[in-house]
Amino acid sequence: MRQTRVLVFGAHGMLGQALVRRFAQDAACVLLTAARRDADFCLDMTDDAALAATFSTARPDVVINAAAVTNLAAAERDPGLAYCVNARFAGVLAELCRAAGARLVQVSTDHYYTGDGAALHDENAPVRLLNEYARTKYAGEAFARAYDGSLVLRTNIVGFRYQSGHPTFVEWALGELQAGRPMRLFDDFYTSSMTVRQLADVIAA
């Protein structure tokens, strides 16, 4: 039986690492990684020619986009970069997947809701674009959905990065607790988070 070729963008991020660990254990898959460094394909995601060359070489059956500017402050400081990575990149991937006949999994966010407490939300719930992160991720959803072979996952994930760099929320909170420093948090934030390992299992299924 032919193995499924799975190409993961953002392989060094929190979710990307979980996906790499999950698919590396799947004998039915050939795992391919893409990131700025230390990956099977090292590239700048804003370089359309490099992306096209990656698709030509990788010949993926499934593409998982786990790359994003997730830091809210960074997205506010550089909305152009946030748009290129969170929105436009998804559109380019959708067109490349369409041409290659590959399926696209676009990992999005639930950072669209406010003012309704613990209310549950489904795909048809109205959204509010609260900041540049939300605006660019929502645009990325629209670009991905323009391709019939795409699946958009609107979710909230927590976990560990396991590498140097900007800490995840969990890593930051644990660090502050261990150091005994006071933390400024919210008392009106509701979400249904899942771990990156759980989401990786869902995607692999």
Description:
- The chain is α/β, with parallel strands linked by helices.
- It has one domain: Rossmann fold, CATH 3.40.50.
- Helix content is 41%, strand content 16%.
- It has a six-stranded parallel beta sheet, sandwiched between helices. A two-stranded parallel ribbon has the order 7-8.
- Strand 5, helix 5 and strand 6 form a beta-alpha-beta unit.
- Helix 1 crosses helix 7, helix 2 runs parallel beside helix 4 and helix 4 packs parallel to helix 5.
- The chain starts with a strand and ends with a helix.
- The mean pLDDT is 92.
State the main characteristics.
six-stranded parallel beta sheet; two-stranded parallel ribbon; alpha/beta; Rossmann fold; single chain
Given helix and strand content, the structural type is alpha/beta
Spans of at least 5 consecutive residues with low confidence: none
User: Might you state the CATH topology name?
Assistant: Rossmann fold
Overall pLDDT, averaged? Answer: 92
Write down the Rg. Answer: 17 Å
| Biggest sheet, spatial arrangement of strands | 3-2-1-4-5-6
Offer a concise description of the structure:
The protein has seven helices and eight strands. It has helices at residues 14-24, 48-58, 72-77, 79-100, 132-145, 169-179, 196-204; strands at 4-9, 29-35, 41-42, 62-65, 103-107, 150-153, 157-158, 194-195.
Topology:
Layout lengths: L3 E6 L4 H11 L4 E7 L5 E2 L5 H11 L3 E4 L6 H6 L1 H22 L2 E5 L24 H14 L4 E4 L3 E2 L10 H11 L14 E2 H9 L1
Parallel strand pairs: 1-2, 1-4, 2-3, 4-5, 5-6, 7-8
Helix pairs in contact: 1-7, 2-4, 4-5
